[in-house]
Amino acid sequence: MATSTPTVFEGARQWPTWRKVVSVTVVSFADCLTFLVSMMLAPSVPQVLQEFRPDGSDKFLGSFSVTVYILGFVVGPLVFGPLTDLMGRITILRFTATCFLIFTIACALSSSLPMLIVFRFIAGCFGGAPMAIGGGVVSDLYPPGSRSRPMAWYSVGTMMGPTLGPILGGVITGGLSWRWVFWIAAILAGICVTSLWFLLEETHEATLVRRADSPQTSSLESKKTTITKKLRANWQVKGVWDSLGKSIVIIPTKITCHPPALAILLLIGVFNGLVNMILSSLGSVFQFQYHFAATTAGLSYIGLGVGGVLGLAATPRFCDFVGKFRPHPNGSRQPEHALPMMILAGPLASVGLFWYGWSVETKCQWMVPIIGLGVFGFGYMSMRLSTQIFLVEAFPGFTASALAAHTIFSSIGGSAIPLGTFPLYGRVGYGWGNSVIAFVNLGLCIVPLGMYLLHPVLRNERGIDLPS
Length: 468
Prior knowledge:
Blueprint: H1 17-40, H2 45-52, H3 60-71, H4 75-87, H5 89-108, H6 113-127, H7 129-141, H8 148-175, H9 179-198, H10 205-212, H11 226-234, H12 237-256, H13 259-289, H14 294-297, H15 302-325, H16 339-361, H17 367-394, H18 399-416, H19 421-444, H20 446-461
Helix pairs in contact: 1-7, 1-8, 1-9, 2-3, 3-6, 3-18, 4-5, 4-7, 4-12, 5-6, 5-7, 5-9, 8-9, 8-15, 10-11, 13-17, 13-18, 13-19, 13-20, 15-17, 16-17, 16-19, 16-20, 17-18
InterPro entries: MFS, MFS_dom, MFS_trans_sf
Subcellular location: Membrane
Organism: Clohesyomyces aquaticus
């Protein structure tokens, strides 16, 4: 076990490089596990419904059993992020990972569909914690200006989880059963808990300062720097609890009073719901239309993964190009520089949806819809990343709150809207069903287009920056 907790005098930013890399890898694995488990169940939905609903009723609950996990993400970033200021990063990470392990095992032992849904929601609440804490660990380890590469390494988990989850889930379901999806997830969660106990130490400086106030460290008082004393003086439990309350109550109020940001949040909420309609049904579609075995149904997600990687690579470069092509008078990066990518990403995603839907409807060779999904994946990841860039630039000094709001809105939309997936397909088929999703997505493009055309007025009348 890691027992040599560093003192505040040799904080996390003074750790050797190998120790920082190990720490970032551990939190990246925790984040990857969160997203991996979110979609591992998707290829197993037919088997789950066959066991719990053999009469074919309540098909929408099959999709909900997948997306309800994402609804739990609303709780994790909102509550556990601020709690790290009270109890430290490592304490919350170990606690939430252990609870995630327990409720994942409970999912494997579920005896009814409602029981599975409830346990999966609770697991999502605890599983969402690394989404709020992982970035904080990176910022603890690296100073501003040196975080781009560590953040890229940390984001690998976020990117790979949703792609590998369905593939792994399909192999497990085909070779064993859907319950083994959760048993394997529990084994991975156990590895995560072990790594958090043995490989990751506390990085939160205020927590290290508090520990330095213990009797064992009183003899070192004379060695503390002025910065250390200031941090210790400002660290108050009451203040942390106040900040926790504000993060839950005040942030939504400020967002609601800020029309440009609210428009983007509503956009990503609906858009993420449309995306999860595809993600939660993809494995089942390929099993029904192309008679893929459960072991290979997860391979249908590869197109999404490849397109997503290309979208992640292209979006920052395109936003930088827009910033140079239409620079702000003061030369700074502005939120509206991310809007053109949203304007392009929306129609691209719709093209991919039309491609995918009608090729599945007409039962074209199975590689044809997967290519369409690659186009859709590029549009999806580009839209998601560009909305995050917009909020980060629009909320200077409030980036954590802005991204937490992004997670909350996308999680609510991503868990509720997919309930209509199978009823939609059952009524109008895969071709028109995905066309409806594509047309709704095209309608969303009005939001970034209107904001880009009106951004001088929005800045002058309301201001893009969130007031402190």
